Automatic annotation (TrEMBL):
Keywords, ordered alphabetically: Calcium, Disulfide bond, Metal-binding, Secreted, Signal
InterPro entries per UniProt: ConA-like_dom_sf, Pentraxin_domain, PTX_dom
Locations listed in the record: Secreted
Cofactor: Ca(2+)
Primary gene name: LOC115810580
Assigned GO CC terms: extracellular region
Assembly, per entry: Homopentamer. Pentaxin (or pentraxin) have a discoid arrangement of 5 non-covalently bound subunits.
Parts forming coiled coils: none
Name of the protein: Pentraxin family member
UniProt family annotation: Belongs to the pentraxin family.
Amino acid sequence: MEKLTCFLAILATCYASPQDLSGKMFTFPAETNTAHVRLIPTRGNFSAVTVCLRYFTDLTRNQALFSLATPSHSNGFLLFKANTGGQLTIGLQNQDVVFRELLDEQNSWVSVCGTWESGSGLAQPWINGKPGSRKQGPSSVLGGSPIIIVGQEQDSFGGGFDAGQSFVGLLADVHMWNHVLSYCEITRFANNDNFTPGNILNWRALEFNSVGNVVVENRTPEYCF
């Protein structure tokens, strides 16, 4: 009976029902090499990607905002904020595409999106709805079954965490699409204005598993009326 109970508990963890996290956030209160949230995508194999999220932190060191790994690429699609102010790296199939002189704020909610498509190989960041430059990335499909994690960077498939690259702060509104969003769609996300949620990851219907010191709590409104 005890073995059956454990087995059922594992199944419940692995196949948690999607949750509507509207008005919620993940709080990562401490620097660790363990605390993270695994996000379960609806599918894999991507010829294009858009990832958008909002974060709040006071850190100025390197930290991972979003980490997608496949068996062949630990940095399949990575959003990585560098300790150099205004620098964001989009990691694509283990290739770093670096963007500089972007808007950089601490102790404030920041909207960030990263896009890439394999046809041209072009990647682009967006901070608070404002586009960065477009730069060359890989022009091959991102294949394989992905593991998606926030709170840590994967240096190996599903692991290899380094506390010095962990995210410390607040994270919300994580969405992922298997196509490149238009300028207007990204602007609507940045303004939280009736945007279409992600079809790969949807914050309003998110399947996830949290590990370690992560708190799911209500997001404090930016304005009181």
